[in-house]
Amino acid sequence: MTSAAIYGCSGHRLTAEERTFFAETRPWGFILFRRNVDSPEQVRALVDELRDSIGDPGCPVLIDQEGGRVQRMGPPHWPKYPPGEAYLKATNDPLAARELVRLGARLIAHDLKAVGINVDCVPVIDVPVPGAHDIIGDRAYARDPATVAQLGRAAAEGLLAGGVLPIIKHIPGHGRAFSDSHHDLPVVDVDFETLDGWDFAPFKALSDMPMAMTAHVVFDAIDRKRPATTSKKAIRMMREHLGFGGLIMSDDLSMKALSGTLTDRAVASLKAGCDVVLHCNGDLQEMRQVAEGTGRLKGRAARRAESALARIVRAVEPLDAGEARVRFDALLAGRLEAAKGPDVGEAQA
Asked: Can you give the pTM of this predicted structure?
């Protein structure tokens, strides 16, 4: 029996207690953070241990590898990637930025696949507004929904080409929040038409993506009482109005924007229509509370989960990683002419 949950773990290797808990609860997947990352060999061993603990060699293992402030695998073993806004700044041209975003995502997929990670919590397709909290900030690709959607799709395509699933976040939009949902519950009191034309637009444009992560944000125009994660009205809007047919997962249940016990939060998220819930901090006692409110992954949710994993390509797009990294760094620095060689247009990335 697979449960409708994704869990973190505490360190570089599984403890005996974690292994027993995972074997008993059989979560759908796992997520890694910086506390779980040391070297490529260590990460690969941990990923193998996680999968072995539930007896599923192909289960999803997630990470937040955006670049900038949100990058769990970094130097000295992995390159430092830029935040989302850097791509458009480097090119000052959405079309050129699109190619650069795709190349960066393809390289990230290369890094992740090498250590067995098959899901990246990217792209961030939130659209910030002036004065909003900087929890999104430079993680956003642009400051208008059309460009965000274009560059977000490029990132998703780069990941998919490298055998890694993308997760669009934070549906239906976190860019208008004036507080950080890690610490407080943001409330957005803008009318639906404004939200639809701005905040929701990139999610509608990328509604064909395999997975989405919710926003712990209250939208008064949808549901004045509950954040999107635990709102039946909001999840229904994502399905029917935005047209999102993929797997919907909650953002981290331990974030302070949510109220109630962790068991209550898990129950409320799944009851609202999330397919799976996410718990990130690796605290075993907290995970046990989440498990009490998390049932079996079944029905439509199970079918969506299966469909999402079916999007992972086995024959990845060819990549000369060394050449691609040199080209990526040069393009990012605005040195397009210096990066060009006689065959640069033929390089596959």
From this structure: 0.93
